[in-house]
Amino acid sequence: MRETKGPEGASDKIPAPSYRIAIQVAPRFRAKVDEGSLRRVAAEALSQEGVEGETELSLIITDDEAIRELNRQFRGVDAPTDVLAFGARAEEHFVIAPESPPYLGDVVISCQRALAQAEEWGHAIVEELRLLVIHGILHLLGYDHQQEAAARKMREREERISLDSQMVGWSNSQTT
Question: How far apart are CA 47 and CA 38, in angstroms?
């Protein structure tokens, strides 16, 4: 529950959004990945972007070869990348059962790229994965970085969410 102050300082209880965040981690990377941390930062990103109600998404942590194949198949780029986002709304043939919560899409992350980038930037793998989860979710929500102004806006949101997710205990969001 989130608490807000209504008229005359009265407290209103607003139910926190319920996010269903499925996480799949390739077996060889399980020891390097804190699923709870990824789930919390994903929930924080959704909350910060105003996603309300039940929403589902998947986070997939894989290797360079798997993400290279996805990149080749869906973007025509035969090379590994750090993160790909596949929005469910972009797929016309994607069918959701009527009683199911809205499905936002999938964020696929190369753990090998994340490890290399964490080393390059001098921070922990958990921090790099946090940044890539935020980046992927922003893509699912429509952010892009093809144009300079859009890239600047996306970067500002990434930085704000990352900073806030480090400062907040993620108690405002429920995840399953």
Answer: 14
With respect to residue 95, please indicate whether it lies within any of the assigned structural domains.
yes
Residue 155 CB burial class (10 angstroms; 0-12, 13-18, ≥19): middle
Give residue 126's domain range.
13-164
- Does residue 5 sit within a domain? no
Residues whose CB is less than 8 angstroms from the CB of residue 156 and which lie 6 or more positions away in sequence, other chains included: none
CA distance linking residue 42 with residue 83, whole number of Å: 14
Q: How many domains does the chain have?
A: 1
Q: CA nearest 128: which of 153, 104, 162? A: 162
Q: Give the number of residues written for the chain.
A: 176
| pLDDT at residue 171, as a whole number | 35
* Residue-wise pLDDT tens digits, 31-74: 999 999 999 999 999 999 999 888 999 999 999 999 999 999 99
Residues of the chain with pLDDT under 70: 1-17, 89-97, 167-176
**Residue 147 belongs to domain with CATH number:** 3.40.390.30
The pLDDT value given to residue 4: 39
DSSP state of 16: P
